## 1
Amino acid sequence: MMSFTDYAGVAGLIAATAVAIWMLRNHRTIAPTARHRGAPTLRLPRPTRPERASSRR
């Protein structure tokens, strides 16, 4: 006889499998759009007038 925790474990495994299959099936449609959503860049902001910054010595 299975206890309540056994049923909960089996239901959790089924749910995790269903979510994994759903994510793998939707991976191809989501991946190209996620690339263009504000990817972090390491560029520093440019000074607005570099000639003014060099003449302040």
## 2
Amino acid sequence: MTEINRLRDLTTFMIHCCYTCPKAYECTTEEQCLACWKAQHTGVEEKPDAETTEKLLKEYAL
């Protein structure tokens, strides 16, 4: 993963996960944020399955 992609993903997760987290002030490093996201099962390490994504998009369109 390139540095730009890593930073983009980090920013995206921070917006989605940290912005509404009542304990966001406890995470002071990137490593703490990653550990918190993994503990909350946010899908940090998971890559979306193309077939599943396609099915979901079709369901949303209906």
## 3
Amino acid sequence: MPISILDLVAAVAVLIGIPASLVLIARRSKQAALWFAAGILCFVVGGSAIEKLVTGASGLF
């Protein structure tokens, strides 16, 4: 199934934007950058756990 241009733009924004924002936050405060990274990790793991509970399949578990 091919992806749309909007999906491609969103994926590129996430792949470039999250690391870039992490670097920019780390320049000001290392502790804030760690909290930001921990939040992203919790979001990914939590979302995967919810997906596993709802659908029975998850890319992470």
## 4
Amino acid sequence: MRFIVGLFVLVSTLSVSAHELKGSLPDHYPPYSIVGDTTKGIIPDLLVALNSFSDHAYKAQPNTTRRSLKLLHEGQIHYRFDSERWVTNASDYYWSDAIVEVNDVLVYPASGPAINDIKQLQRLANDRQKPLRIGTRFDYHYPTLMPLLNNGNMVRDNFYSEINMLKALADKEHGQLSAVVIAEHVYDYLLRSRPELVGELVKSNRPIDTALYQFQFPKTDNGRINMLYTNRLLDKLRRNGELEKIVNNYTQ
């Protein structure tokens, strides 16, 4: 009972002492973050919506995965964005409720063999004399690919952006990739701006993995407080339909 009362007081007093919550968002991960002359996307719009309800000011700057983790560990930022499914040491952090569900899909050349799920990818990798080359994002973790990567039947070609990954896949003259792994929302968004790739590439009709995109907080007392407070705001945005509206604005 004392724990419940204490937790209630903790959460209730958060709105009293306002302060700035500094964070980091991906340097370019459209449509979640679109970095250009101005930064827009699902996450920047979400932060604006959170601030309309919050006594704290959520602010975030674009950074690479490695840089943002360093800032979080050093205590220079309060949060970043990731999924506990994509982090090998997920229990070392606090995680918010889901912002959006992310489906990873395989994309392969239209002229190549169909790769519509992880089983087809595994069969293709097992039947080759050389390891199958697959495009991935630098510093990203892919749980469902680990068995193929660990047994040597598949190797990663790492890229710093999804568009470069897709260009390499569509390169018929120099291309060595059999497929790439990409979030479905990202692929669909990029294809709307790069229609020349539509006829060259095919998206798998089933995801190879599904994860929840979340706020990631350090496992400290303040990290726990910020996680609880953020969850309360996310629940408001979910119940009033604003969160769905933000996601649909970039994905439909």
